[in-house]
Amino acid sequence: MSLFFHFGTNTYTNSEWGTGHTDPSVFNPTSFNATQWVNVAKDSGFSRVILTAKHHDGFCLWPSEYTDYSVKSSSWENGSGDVVKELVEAARIVGVQLGLYLSPWDRHEACYGKTLEYNEYYMGQMTELLTRYGEIREVWLDGAKGEGEKDMEYFFDDWFSLIHQLQPRAVIFSDAGPDTRWVGDEAGVAGTTCWSLFNTSDAKIGDTDAEYSGGGDPLGHDWVPAECDVSIRPGWFWHPSEVPKSAMTLLDLYYKSVGRNCLLLLNVPPNSSGLISEQDIQVLQEFSEIRNSIFTHNLAKNALISASSTRDSKYSPQNVVEDSIFSYWAPDNIALSEWILYLDFEEVITFNVLLVQEPIQMGQRVKKFHLEFSNEYGEWEEATSGTTVGYKRLLLFPSVKTSHLRLIVEKSRADPLISYLGLYMDPFSILGHISRVSSISLVNGTESLRQSI
Question: What's the pLDDT score for residue 431?
């Protein structure tokens, strides 16, 4: 999970897309505290922060040598401040990774629309950001260009080459890669099938067509995981009239992003004083507490675990409850129609969340799986099912009570490998308050409640 910080002149003008003509003196975060920002991130379980170093209005949060439309022309710190520098230093001390967003669209810069000149200008600003501030772990950009305003061509390949040269460890986000891609919406929700595999050759860089980007491609030749971007508030920049989403809404987004093999990029916009608002902090704290309450105790660790086959002792089924992607269960190398993990408990357990992880360094393999439990009649009954797993898959369903389970992988691109399996109880979500019997009784005449959620 990463936090996005949308911050700039828009914060002071109650706007989302600035015109590029706002007087830079309006930018004056009198209580600015980058340490507060990164502490909020770390305390809430977010390992990376990404700052809008420049948004579409062209206002720069660092003193760029390429324009005066920046913090050096603002009221803040008498024009001597540098938001990027302070955030970099705070993130390094706290141990949070840093990413930067440099908008290709620039509504202030006069040379925007002159293809060659502006591409050089953009690369000059990118060079400043990637050489002045130490290690940058993600460079975030999109294909925005204000259709109809000015005709503009972006030299994406040149930009990507420069970024990889200056910051070899940085991943580049754009709508279609090259390193990580847009999931296709700004709701923070991935499709129920989501491959990290992708064919960048099939997509035009800078294209924002969600049809190709969302679910990936099981036959893809490139490894381009998806990011789910969403704002904690209705807008991307802070507005005094808006309130944040609830912790329960964030939990639902967590299931539908992180729980679907994606990174959750949650925007938390600093306010006009230069701080994360207390309302937002309270929601993030509650979100963190809820996650910890659900996912701290893995019931599967109490199970006797066996498998339909095992390659050898190094790949024991018991590896699936060790919290590491480098230990995993692997079946025997024989052709099978399905692969099964059995979990047997000494006493009845109650749960409504399944977590499955693949050792992602070995690729993404699982195409279809389901979880069955032994019901009160001793019959196998399906609790939940899914398609892709990837780094992490979370499935929420009506509560199950049982002492015998089996995870069945029905389809896989190669021998399925499982690095972690978790069973948890979520008492907070809607399904956490519904028994399996009552959920089944609601199916008649409509699609099941389980499917609708």
Answer: 67
CATH code of 182's domain: 3.20.20.80
Same domain, 341 and 220: no
3-state secondary structure the chain: CEEEECCCCHHHHCCCCCCCCCCHHHCCCCCCCHHHHHHHHHHCCCCEEEEEEECCCCCECCCCCCCCCEHHHCCHHHHCCCHHHHHHHHHHHHCCEEEEEECCCCCCCCCCCCHHHHHHHHHHHHHHHHHHCCCCCEEECCCCCCCCCCCCCCCHHHHHHHHHHHCCCCEEEEEEECCEEECCCCCCCCCCCCCCEECHHHCCCCCCCHHHHCCCCCCCCEECCEEEEEECCCCCCCCCCCCCCCHHHHHHHHHHCCCECCEEEEECCCCCCCCCCHHHHHHHHHHHHHHHHHHCCCHHHHCEEEECCCCCHHHCHHHHHCCCCCCCECCCCCCCCCEEEEEEEEEEEEEEEEEEECCHHHCCCEEEEEEEEECCCCCEEEEEEECCCCCCEEEEEEEEEEEEEEEEEEEECCCCCECEEEEECCCCCHHHHCEHHHHHHCCCCCCCHHHHC
- ∠ at Cα 404 (401, 410), nearest 5°? 110
- pLDDT, tens only, 285-297: 999 999 999 999 9
- Model confidence pLDDT, tens digit, residues 79-91: 999 999 999 999 9
Same domain, 183 and 316: no
Q: How many CA atoms lie within 13 A of 174 on its CB side?
A: 24
Residue 48 sits in which domain range? Answer: 2-295
Query: Which of the four pLDDT bands, split at 50, 70 and 90, describes residue 100?
Result: very high
pLDDT at 200: 84
The mean predicted confidence, pLDDT, of the chain is 93
Shared domain for 224 and 279, answered yes or no, is yes
